[in-house]
Amino acid sequence: MSDFEHRSVETETRRATPGRPWTPQEEPRQDALRRYLGAVAAAASRRSTGQESAPASGTGSTEGPVTASPGPAAPGPAVLHVRDVMRVPAASVPGDMPFSEVARTLAREQVGSVPVVDADDHVIGVVSESDLLAKAAVMAEPHRHGSVGRMWQHRLYEKSHGDTAATLMTFPPVTVHPTARVSDAAWTAAHARLKRLPVTDHRGRLVGVVSRRDLLRALIRDDAEIRAEAESLVGRYLPDPHAVAVSVENGTVTMTGRADKALVADVLAAVRDIDDVLDVVDATEAF
User: Fold this and answer.
1) Mind listing the pLDDT tens digit for each residue in 260-272?
2) Which contiguous run of DSSP H or E holds residue 253?
3) Based on the number of CB atoms within 10 Å of its own CB, is 249 exposed (0-12), middle (13-18) or buried (19 or more)?
4) What is the pTM for the complete model shown?
């Protein structure tokens, strides 16, 4: 990534940092977030330089879904597609489902949003906890006056008077195709600020759902994979590959042992270029 992309990732991470003291689990979560944002930024960089073809844009019509269309498959087994990580079957609700039943569905499925489908299973929108919260607020106080009624979320306030999934939902829906690259789906989710994306076939019918967590797991390499690649670099640069030990935790590579510092510097530079490496700690000692 470029320096600008690194700064963008760090800025987004700081925005996500909680104002309260971190729990022991919070730092690994923030590290994972940095790696996710880094992968998205790298995907965006490849798209802008032509190394990956960008997905075809939708028609722009408000009648149909906004879908990340599949691009031509890149060579090599490392390319993951949405179909490899999506979850099936996907929970959905019909457009005529009442507000209260939609709320029960979200609670039962333990999700924050759910696709709304028509009689032929075409995705026509997405209804979320935010939509239901606005509806609940209107039910509690139907007549809002003053600045609240003039907020820029005027459309949200107006549609919250609806009583069914179709009248409460957000549309057009942002969806992805099963053959879309995971990196493209991650970019779509990040750009739209969505936690879950419905997966639809070429006719717009619901076939699955992919979450930001699913994309995160697919984009971020396992620490064991990073360690194996780092150890191979140690063997390439150092006469004695056993002189330096490599450990990896949450994307941070630590190197310990005794070796020629000049050679170690070359290894460190190479390890920093490994995908998904957040930091490299040099704990080696000179001969």
Assistant:
1) 989 999 999 999 9
2) strand 252-258
3) middle
4) 0.58
